[in-house]
C-alpha cells in the first residue's frame, strides 16, 4: 500500500550524482593543467621550434591522458534500451524509462532514467555502481542494493553479474578487467619511459618505447575481446526490450590511441634510418655529425652556438714576424723547419 503521498515506504530517494566520473575528472584536470603550463612557457621558445615543441607536448599529453583515463573508464562495454518495465518489488505499476549498462575494467554501472523523469510521484533517476576491484566483494555490494530496495531494472542487471549467476558474466568480465588493466599500466610506464628518452639524445630508443606503448594497448584490447567472448551472450530482457552488449567508447578510443602510438613509433624508426638529422632537428637536439651545420636563434635554438661553414671561414693571413724571429728563421732555413713559416 502506498503511503506518504503515494511514495512506497522504505525506499530511499535517488542520491545526487556528479555529472561525470570523479576519477576521470581528476585525470582530465591534471593533464589540462600540465597543458596550460606548457602553453604559458611557449613564448620562451623562438622560431619554428615553438610549433614543433607544442605538437610534441600535445601529442604526448593526449596519449598519456587516454591510457590513464581509459584504465578507469566504465564504458568498455555498453548497452542501452528504452523500455516499459516494472519499477519496484511488490508493485504492479510499470514505468517508461531508458536503461543503460556500462561495464568497465573494475565494475558495472547501471543507469535508470524515467521518460519523463517524474513518474509515480517520484523522480526516477538512478546511477548505481557495483565494483569487483581487488579487495571489493561484488556479492556484498549486490546484497546491500537489495537491502536499500533499488528499482527492479537496476537489481535485475546487477544480478546478471553476480558470481552465482548462470550467465557467467562476472567471471569473464572480472578476468578481462584485471588483466587488461594490468596491461594498460605497463603501457603507461612505457609512455613515461618514452618521454624520458625523447628528452635525451637517444631518440631511437624513445621511438621504440612509443612503439611498445601502442603494442601493449593493442594487446590489452585483444585480451579484453577474447576474454569477454568466452561464453555465449546472455540475454538481458527488461520488459519489452532486450539489451545487447557491445564495445563502448573506451574500447575504440584505446584502439585509436594504440594505432597512433604504433604509427609514431614506426615513423621515428624509419626517420632515424633515413633522415636522422631532421629527426634531431624536430626534437630540438644538436646535430653533432657535421659541425658545418648552422643553427640560428631564429630557427628555435635558445642557447646553441653558431657554427660557421668552411666557405664562411676567413682566409688565413700571413702574420708579420719580428726582426729576431726573421733572423732565426733565415738561419734555420736549410733545415726546412716548417714551424718558422706561419
Biggest β-sheet: strands ordered side by side in the sheet: 4-3-2-1-7
Strand elements, count: 7
Largest sheet: 5 strands, antiparallel
| Poorly predicted tracts of residues | 1-11, 288-311, 337-342
Helix % is: 40-55%
Gyration radius from CA atoms, angstroms: 33 Å
Mean pLDDT: 78
Which of globular, elongated, flat, extended, rod-shaped describes the shape? elongated
In N-to-C order, the SSE pattern is: HHEEEEHHHHEEEHHH
Strand content: 5-15%
**Could you say which structural class the secondary elements and strand pairing correspond to?**
alpha+beta
Distance between the termini: 115 Å
Quickly count the helices: 9
Characterise the protein shown here.
A five-stranded antiparallel sheet has the order 4-3-2-1-7. The chain has a two-stranded antiparallel sheet with strand order 5-6. Helix content is 46%, strand content 15%. The protein starts with 21 loop residues before the first helix and ends in an 11-residue tail after the last helix. Strand 2 (94-103) and strand 3 (107-119) form a beta hairpin. The protein is elongated, with a radius of gyration of 33 Å. The chain has helices at 22-40, 49-72, 138-148, 152-159, 169-198, 203-227, 249-274, 276-282, 323-331, and strands at residues 77-86, 94-103, 107-119, 122-131, 236-238, 241-243, 246-247.
How are the SSEs ordered, and which strands pair?
Elements: H1 22-40, H2 49-72, E1 77-86, E2 94-103, E3 107-119, E4 122-131, H3 138-148, H4 152-159, H5 169-198, H6 203-227, E5 236-238, E6 241-243, E7 246-247, H7 249-274, H8 276-282, H9 323-331
Antiparallel strand pairs: 1-2, 1-7, 2-3, 3-4, 5-6
Helix pairs in contact: 1-2, 2-5, 2-7, 5-6, 6-7, 7-8
Amino acid at each position: 500500500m502506498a503511503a506518504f503521498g503515494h511514495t512506497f515506504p522504505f525506499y530511499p530517494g535517488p542520491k545526487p550524482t556528479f555529472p561525470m566520473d570523479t576519477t576521470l575528472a581528476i585525470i582530465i584536470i591534471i593533464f589540462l593543467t600540465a597543458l596550460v603550463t606548457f602553453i604559458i612557457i611557449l613564448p620562451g621558445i623562438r622560431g619554428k621550434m615553438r610549433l614543433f615543441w607544442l605538437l610534441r607536448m600535445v601529442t604526448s599529453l593526449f596519449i598519456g591522458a587516454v591510457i590513464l583515463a581509459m584504465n578507469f573508464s566504465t564504458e568498455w562495454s555498453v548497452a542501452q534500451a528504452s523500455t516499459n518495465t516494472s519499477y519496484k518489488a511488490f508493485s504492479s505499476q510499470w514505468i517508461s524509462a531508458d536503461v543503460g549498462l556500462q561495464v568497465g575494467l573494475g565494475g558495472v554501472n547501471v543507469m535508470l532514467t524515467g521518460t519523463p523523469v517524474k513518474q509515480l510521484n517520484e523522480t526516477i533517476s538512478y546511477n548505481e555502481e557495483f565494483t569487483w576491484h581487488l579487495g571489493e566483494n561484488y556479492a556484498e555490494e549486490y546484497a546491500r542494493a537489495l537491502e536499500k530496495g533499488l528499482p527492479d531494472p537496476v537489481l535485475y542487471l546487477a544480478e546478471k553479474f553476480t558470481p552465482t549467476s548462470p550467465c557467467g558474466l562476472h567471471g569473464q568480465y572480472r578476468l578481462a578487467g584485471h588483466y587488461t588493466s594490468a596491461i594498460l599500466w605497463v603501457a603507461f610506464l612505457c609512455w613515461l619511459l618514452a618521454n624520458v628518452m625523447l628528452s635525451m639524445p637517444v631518440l631511437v630508443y624513445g621511438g621504440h618505447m612509443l612503439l611498445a606503448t601502442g603494442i601493449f594497448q593493442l594487446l590489452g584490447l585483444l585480451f579484453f575481446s577474447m576474454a569477454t567472448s568466452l561464453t555465449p551472450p546472455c540475454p538481458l530482457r527488461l520488459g519489452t526490450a532486450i539489451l545487447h552488449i557491445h564495445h563502448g567508447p573506451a574500447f575504440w578510443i584505446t584502439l585509436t590511441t594504440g594505432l597512433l602510438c604504433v604509427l609514431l613509433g614506426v615513423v621515428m624508426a624509419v626517420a632515424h634510418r633515413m633522415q636522422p638529422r631532421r629527426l634531431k632537428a624536430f626534437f630540438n637536439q644538436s646535430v653533432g655529425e657535421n659541425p658545418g651545420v648552422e643553427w640560428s636563434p631564429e630557427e628555435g635554438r635558445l642557447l646553441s652556438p653558431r657554427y660557421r661553414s668552411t666557405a664562411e671561414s676567413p682566409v688565413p693571413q700571413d702574420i708579420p714576424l719580428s726582426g729576431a724571429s726573421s733572423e732565426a728563421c733565415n738561419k734555420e732555413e736549410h733545415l726546412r723547419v716548417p714551424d718558422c713559416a706561419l
